[in-house]
Amino acid sequence: MEHIDYTPWYISPKTKCLLSDYETEPTSKGWRSGSELEEHLADMGDKLDKLQSTLHAAKTRGLLVVFQGMDTAGKDGVIRSVFSHVSPLGVRAEAFGVPTELESRHDFLWRIHAKAPARGEMVIFNRSHYEDVLVTRVRGWIDEETCQKRYNDILHFESLLQDAGISVLKCYLHISKSEQKKRLQSRLDDQRKHWKLQPSDFGDRDLWPQFTQAYEEALSATSTPESPWYVVPADSKPYRDSFVAGLIVQTLDNMKLKMPKPSFDLSKVKLS
Amino acid sequence: MEHIDYTPWYISPKTKCLLSDYETEPTSKGWRSGSELEEHLADMGDKLDKLQSTLHAAKTRGLLVVFQGMDTAGKDGVIRSVFSHVSPLGVRAEAFGVPTELESRHDFLWRIHAKAPARGEMVIFNRSHYEDVLVTRVRGWIDEETCQKRYNDILHFESLLQDAGISVLKCYLHISKSEQKKRLQSRLDDQRKHWKLQPSDFGDRDLWPQFTQAYEEALSATSTPESPWYVVPADSKPYRDSFVAGLIVQTLDNMKLKMPKPSFDLSKVKLS
């Protein structure tokens, strides 16, 4: 397989990251453009489909893909584009909203753990346990000390998954504030999307610097070689989709998955 | 929307059905062929996607689609083809295999009920509670009386879902014995599929008449206008996919779903 080096978008552990160092549009760092992106996505889609079949058959490893990002960053969009290449039987998508009354009476990882992939499974999180160190932090619902403790809880939780054969791949969908404006405007213009709009979609925008800082801290504190965070340039949708598909394919490819042997001697089968 | 009359493939309640009365290939009953099928599937895929969005937004109704059929009838295949048009966030696929030790210590509907759709959800069952009146019956693990009781349990269970706004649509994928032979042979020829093969895949074939009879009884006993069984001609994959997609679209269309109103006054929004 053609090798793409995703290192420039990987957040180094224990190094304070600055999101302003990362482009939201792919310009200087090289990569495809135009119709090449479509071809690449289709190609990665095929590979993803095959790798998922082997993951399912082998049952030795599992994969959790976490998507986070500001409102309108494209979490729903990237999930639709990338995973439409895989059978619904091969992928499970879990969305985490405001915790229910029962969920909020548990520790913050309880509802998350219940939805974790088993070996053989590929699971997508649309928002995740990271909300518990992001919106909670920005809104002042938890203090600095609790937040630091939670980073540690998250590191432990993800290494528990890793020890069970589950890889965790985390994508921060990185958009600019002006791109968000365009997208919010287009939601206001599209009547089919009105029901989904909340005052907070617009209010959170005023807290852009605070959210950026909370992300920078959380990403820096929880990116590890085993459970890496990548900053995905997400102003351009075709680029974003192609980037994410390639990243997931590479992650699965690195697992060196193998089809299991048949469970009995097939040469003895006689079809009547 | 163009109206297709699916009545010829609907199993009338309380009438003993004979599967030999139904074609496995679409010949005499009219319908599309060739590239028209592809176009129809793409068209239905688009409609399904839009209807699913509205189902999710409205949260007034839910849909459960059950797939049953002999080995190699195409359950996995139809799920992949039809639902690849919908975001993984909008559909949940559940496969039911041999019950676990815990599951078999519960009543047969326990594990099924736990996976039922909520209002707003579309769920696919790849095999289902119907296995508990099919393979169990053919293998003699349950007696006639238990089987009759279970038909009744199933009718009650599905009407419970119906009362909660969940429609149940049931598809029997109807293939001929000679088509099954071809498909089993092609699995023997494809090394990537070897791991999945079980001796029972070939042994069940010798029980074709017994399985057919068990299906005929179960389908007749549990088809109702609210939770209908359809016999899907499934020897041709493009026809099968197109048929099922159209049937699901029509079921959702009949719900007359409406987008909810926005939750606040959008005219007051000012984007900074």
Structure commentary:
The structure is a homodimer of 272-residue chains. By secondary structure, the first copy, chain A, is α/β, with parallel strands linked by helices. Chain A has one domain (7-257): Rossmann fold. Chain A has ten helices and five strands, in the order H-E-H-E-H-H-E-H-H-E-H-H-H-E-H. Chain A has helices spanning 35-58, 75-83, 101-104, 110-113, 135-138, 144-163, 177-189, 199-203, 208-222, 237-253; strands at residues 62-69, 92-95, 122-126, 166-174, 229-233. Chain A has a five-stranded parallel β-sheet with strand order 2-3-1-4-5, sandwiched between helices. At the A-B interface, helix 2, strand 2 and helix 7 of A face helix 2, strand 2 and helix 7 of B.
